Amino acid sequence: MSPARGPVLLILASAFLAAAGNGISLVALPWLVLQRTGSAAAASLVAGAATLPLLVATLIAGTAVDFLGRRPVAMLADAMSALSVAAIPVLALTAGEGVLTTAVLAGLAVFGAFFDPAGMTARVSMLPDAARRADWTLDHTNSVYEATFNLAYITGPGIGGLLIATIGAINTMWVTAAAFGCAIVAMAILRLPGADRPERDKRPEGVLSGVLEGLKFVWHNRVLRTLGLIDLAVTGLYLPMESVLFPKYFSDRNEPAELGWVLMALSVGGLIGALSWTVLSRVASKRATVLTATLIFAAASLAIGFLPPLPVILMLSAVVGLVYGPIGPIYNSVMQTRTPEHMRGRVVGVMTSMAYAAGPVGFMLAGPLVDAFGLTPAFLALALPLLVIALLCPWIPALRELDRPATA
Hints:
Blueprint: H1 6-37, H2 40-51, H3 54-68, H4 70-95, H5 102-134, H6 138-167, H7 169-189, H8 207-220, H9 222-252, H10 256-283, H11 286-304, H12 310-324, H13 327-337, H14 344-357, H15 359-373, H16 375-392
Helix pairs in contact: 1-2, 1-5, 1-6, 1-7, 1-9, 2-5, 2-9, 2-15, 3-4, 3-5, 3-8, 3-14, 4-5, 4-7, 5-14, 6-7, 6-10, 6-13, 8-14, 9-10, 9-14, 9-15, 9-16, 10-12, 11-12, 11-16, 15-16
């Protein structure tokens, strides 16, 4: 490992392992609930519980990163996530599988999800320093980071589906815990200026004041504010499709491996799309890329809602990932270049919390919609607003500033 590239490679390895663990859980937790209840509403309750704390957690996480340091927070977050998933097989072994009720699983999902944003915020906040150390451009670094994240969601759900089919959903959680453990090791090895606890005069004075500073900064920067609101709406509408509607569809058909294939197709597309930004950033504008991606993403999601044959679903899922792949690197670069270095954690935390803010509402609507009207109406109820958002984006003035140099 090159000493100059060592830090960025360790950050990428840690991000991959943590995301792979979450990718396995993305398949295993809803499957575990559906096995026991057969209810989409119960599955959406657990999935919604996993996102419910994210709004608050990401706000606090950003302040924690700027106060405690990026590397310590990443390690602590992964340790808590490992404990939350390891608790499932431990409880099954010590108290019997009957103890794993929907309420217990939802509680463990809340506990684990509460710490996930801190790890992600910490790693994204370290990327600019690691990029300078490796002599990589910020666009290239963010592109590779997002590609790594998507690669994890190729392997994670795929492994999750295969493990469920072979050793069961409960034992699959041991693998998830091991992935988080390896992520901690990668962060423990990392040595990077600015990764540990900052100097006293650079830290926020307190949790509340730090959160308010981050919120104020994002709200008064209209580019960040607009991107955050768009991400809020898109994530809130799309996540229930991936985490509730797809598991319900394939659970009814008793096809866990096929669910893994669909999630893998999404991530394969996302991997290629994220990597493509390294080249696209030289020839395409950020605004044109965002507008095109949002429109094709909405159209493909709408087509998936009609539940065509599996090969068509796989193709459309790959398209969804492909066109939306560059969005992550673009958002990261915009945040990093428009934020003071000492406030980077707080701003990343606020932006991430906006992405999760509508998630619980989407989850709470998705399950009852499926149980009352069926899968296709539920898919369409979520996909049609995505199309409306995509058609409105070209008329939003703030998006015209995406390609202008950032101002202090």
